Amino acid sequence: xxxxxxxxxxxxxxxxxxxxxxxxxxxxxxxxxxxxxxxxxxxxxxxxxxxxxxxxxxxxxxxxxxxxxxxxxxxxxxxxxxxxxxxxxxxxxxxxxxxxxxxxxxxxxxxxxxxxxxxxxxxxxxxxxxxxxxxxxxxxxxxxxxxxxxxxxxxxxxxxxxxxxxxxxxxxxxxxxxxxxxxxxxxxxxxxxxxxxxxxxxxxxxxxxxxxxxxxxxxxxxxxxxxxxxxxxxxxxxxxxxxxxxxxxxxxxxxxxxxxxxxxxxxxxxxxxxxxxxxxxxxxxxxxxxxxxxxxxxxxxxxxxxxxxxxxxxxxxxxxxxxxxxxxxxxx
Length: 332
Hints:
Blueprint: H1 5-13, H2 19-30, H3 37-46, H4 50-63, H5 68-80, H6 84-92, H7 102-114, H8 118-130, H9 136-148, H10 150-163, H11 189-193, H12 207-213, H13 221-224, E1 232-234, E2 240-242, H14 243-254, H15 258-271, H16 276-297, H17 301-331
Antiparallel strand pairs: 1-2
């Protein structure tokens, strides 16, 4: 049964609201069909009206299916209640892509592990790496998945959530894994700990990727590196590299996107494995990325989550402003 706006106003009006919360309620009262349901649901939750907050969120997302921020918040609330399939559906039904939403990908990763879906878990972790959003909990779960396999990671994470008092509501269904994925990884814990001491090109390369690149160097380097518009930067070793690739990597590095720069330099080093210049760049970017990731992990998780939501709202505001500017230019 859908609760109307007047009832929501009455429910919130009975609470000892602060001045800011009273302003939130006023905005909802003035525009009950808009997006003010999201901050009002936060008010209800802060006053421990958890069921009412979830109900308001659910109604609001149904009325505004493209409101991705509210959709992700709804998925988070459902996840924290153990309603994994409902939370998964909330993300999957989003008409807008959520690949750039850090919180959405964290939730997707955790739910994929709980469901034993290794493919989806790896897809989410890759999106998080691009966004520099891998927190300690995600890293720990992923490391266990790498070392012991998806089933062990799934069972361990389920036990952990249960110990936190979360009553997981999962369907009784076969594990969503392929037969060739049911065997735990053959990598020993000692080997995993020593993985960082290996040559840097091997870091985070899975077996499938290795099979694709192991015979890559049979192609002559002169055919691999194609100069752009006649301009090229000689790297020795008899080969040349696209100027655009190195320039883009340098731009990423100057802007602080070390993981993106590192991905480019690693790709180039696979093509020219004996090139000392690129090898130095790979080592430098790997060090900078590690330092940046460590700095990110020292941020309070609650603050980090708020920053994500704020960034999303700010991005949408900038988009709307640009659309507004274009409309004004047309009117002129």
